[in-house]
Amino acid sequence: MSLAERTTPSPHPAQAEAAMRAATSVSRKTNAVRGCIDAVLPTRHAGTRKVRIAYELAGEAGTPVIFVAGGISAHRHVAANDCDSAAGWAEDLVGTGRTLDPTRCRVLAFDYIGADGTLDAPIDTADQADAIALLLEALGIEQLEAFIGYSYGAMVGLQLAQRHPARVQRLVAVSGAHRAHPYAAAWRALQRKAVALGQLQCADEQGLSLARQFAMLSYRTPEEFGERFDAPPTLKNGRVCVAAEDYLDAAGAKFVARICSTAWLRLSESIDLHVIDPALITVPTTVIAVEGDRLVPLSDAVTLVEGLGLNGNLRVLRSRYGHDAFLKEGDRIDALLGAALRHNPTGESA
Asked: What is the dihedral of CA 323, 327, 332, 338, to 10 degrees?
């Protein structure tokens, strides 16, 4: 790996902002920095590519840096700050008194390689980890206090721990494992077929919306749907509509407004390409699994922790939200993060 150009010529974020000028916005109140670097990235399946790595770093200068990464639709804006007052994708997990307290740490996040739709080629979680290593080098961050990854982000974190162990002190992998489970891979294959069918009919957005609606059924649990949508069907224009349809339609419409089909297809494939050998990871790792997660079953989390040996420990969260528990159970996830980063696990259930 090597940097072709850096829009951040200095390793320090404050100096990097001055060099990037229009490409970066800075908050003087909280030292929040948003910027990008241009890099050359040797990818696993698509050869050497020029990529732009967009990041956001928010928190008190001089405090430890914690990298946060979410699912394939997550991005660099984790929570509201003075650079961007809009709510981030993990708003409930960042704030005063939380484990991710911006007065006590800096939260670093990036846009996944391929998330802008410009890389129409196979993308591996190893490529994402290598891009993070390039970003840390450009920002002059020798080592992360921790890497917290959710779903796809957990897979990327495992790759970072395996490929660049000196870059991270501790890993927390939430709802992500060492491989894609065959059942989950089958779900995603069907979703990609829905997108392909939409493309054949010149209806890209409809295909992507349908794929997202399929995904919502895999993210959540039958128990939650039973509680929320236990109502008789209705007749509309001569056809039967079930109670969950409006919810699914809204989820699909919201999704297509913020991601293109090329980006989604390549990142969906990236999940299924993911595989690591847990025995090669030496970074202390806390694995957080959710009972009832249909995409990352508890059995895979157990296998991962067994492979990690003395470097791994397991926490199990019971939640009706399934795979989406990390987005819906803010207080409980925060408690688990606090225990993990204090190196003080309190048991295997929460």
From this structure: 110
Angle between helices 204-219 and 261-273 (to 10 degrees): 40
Please report, for residues 33, 152, 164, 285, the alpha-carbon distance to residue 171 in angstroms, rounded to integers and kept in the order given. 24, 14, 12, 5
DSSP 31: -
Beta strands 285-291 and 312-318 are parallel
Q: What is the pLDDT of residues 233-287, one digit of tens each?
A: 999 999 999 999 999 999 999 999 999 999 999 999 999 999 999 999 999 999 9
Residue 348: exposure state from Cβ atoms within 10 A (0-12, 13-18, ≥19): exposed
Choose among 150, 197, 192, 157: nearest CA to 295: 150
Q: Which of 124, 119, 123 is nearest to 159 (CA)?
A: 124
pLDDT digits (tens, 9 = 90+) for 166-214: 999 999 999 999 999 999 999 999 999 999 999 999 899 999 999 999 9
Decide: helix, strand or coil at residue 37. strand
Evaluate if pTM is beyond 0.70.
yes
Closest by CA to 152, choosing from 295, 342, 329, 28, is 295
Q: At what angle do helices 13-20 and 125-139 cross, to 10 degrees?
A: 90
Two tokens, residue 237: 């224009």
Are β-strands 47-59 and 65-69 bridged in parallel, bridged antiparallel, or unpaired?
unpaired
Q: Quick one: which H or E segment has residue 215? A: helix 204-219
Contact in structure between 57 and 108 (CB atoms under 8 Å): yes
Residues belonging to the active site: 151, 293, 323
Q: Which residues contact 220 (CB under 8 A, 6 or more apart)?
A: 321, 322, 323, 324
Backbone φ, ψ for residue 4 (5° rounding): -75, -50
Name the nearest CA neighbour of 340 among 145, 153, 165. Answer: 145
Give the Cα separation of 227 and 220 in Å (integer): 12
The set of residues, in sequence order, having a beta carbon less than 8 Å from that of 155 and lying 6+ positions away, is: 125, 149, 173, 176, 177, 271, 274, 276
Q: Positive or negative CA dihedral for 134, 137, 143, 148?
A: negative
